[in-house]
Amino acid sequence: MKEIYRIFVEGPADKRFIEQLMEFVFNEKIPSDNIISTNGYTNLTATDKEGTFINEMQRTTDDGGINLVIFDADDDCKIRQTELLDWKRRTQTNFELFLFPNNKDEGELENLLEQIINPENKQIMECWDNYEQSLKEIHLPWRNGIPLTIPAKKTRIYAYLEALLGTSRSEKEKIKEKNRDYQNKKHWNLNAEALSELTKFLKSSLSQ
């Protein structure tokens, strides 16, 4: 594995996931400082923030290393790719790009996480699907036809882990994005086919 690299992600959930996935893929401890959270997609490319991340990327390049940017595709993968690659050309930075969930479809980290849930636990998410469908069918008169808000995707993952973990304070801490154990085989499958593109990207980018 390359000695010098930096990986730029959007937030603590992405940082924790990438760090643990890399430890699984490369079978070695990953320095947490090598994975940098930009605290949101727009913070990487915003004019008043550019200097910080450009300097980080340039330092990696000057040291003979590699930069990776792993962000969410959100509503349109092609548009997000274009935006980030345009920023790359404009700032003359060097990095390789991957967008959750699979570098071609719309979505985000949570879409990928749903696809790598231990198959034995799928019933939990099916129950959550039924809950969301029930919300769509509820019409409250005082809302004047406005449908109820469907919980965010992050809430789905939170609820999944909350159902599996205990009720003590220490168990509740394990649900938080920065504390999750993605290597827990009872909860997650890091060999899932849904991870093949991301795993391939990491290996091709970071293998010596």
From TrEMBL:
Pfam family of the protein (one): DUF3226
Family matches, as InterPro entries: DUF3226 (IPR024508)
Protein name according to UniProt: DUF4276 family protein
Species assigned in the record: Bacteroides gallinaceum
Lineage: Bacteria, Pseudomonadati, Bacteroidota, Bacteroidia, Bacteroidales
